[in-house]
Amino acid sequence: MIHKHPICSERIRTVPSQFSWVDHRLVRDHHLEAITHPAAALYLFLITVADAQGLSYYSDAAIMACLTMDSLMLDQARSNLLRAELIAYRKPLYQVLSLEPRTLLSAPARTPLDKPMALAQIFKQMMGGAQ
Question: From 3.40.1350, 3.30.9, 1.10.357, 1.10.10, which CATH number describes the 11-126 domain?
Fold first, then answer.
């Protein structure tokens, strides 16, 4: 039996309070905005196959076969997840990390269209009025 040890012990994931391993903060805290579609596919795969500590030993070949990726796409997806601080990786071990608020990470600058608006402001804009 292989004994696995977390790569990043201070970021062991836990089951979020809502209901599943797929944490709503991926959307709410804008984590998905920092990754590509192939990286999102790899992340979904990893959170699905990882153990309770977020660890997985799936080989590159097995991941590429399952996700129909070539080695370049897998390398780019993995690099994207590493930059977004969603995973840790030390070949051959992946660790899905706990989610940290994007404000503590390098959150992208928000454009005016991304800012929350009151419903009244939305109606005014729709009707051609000032903000």
Answer: 1.10.10
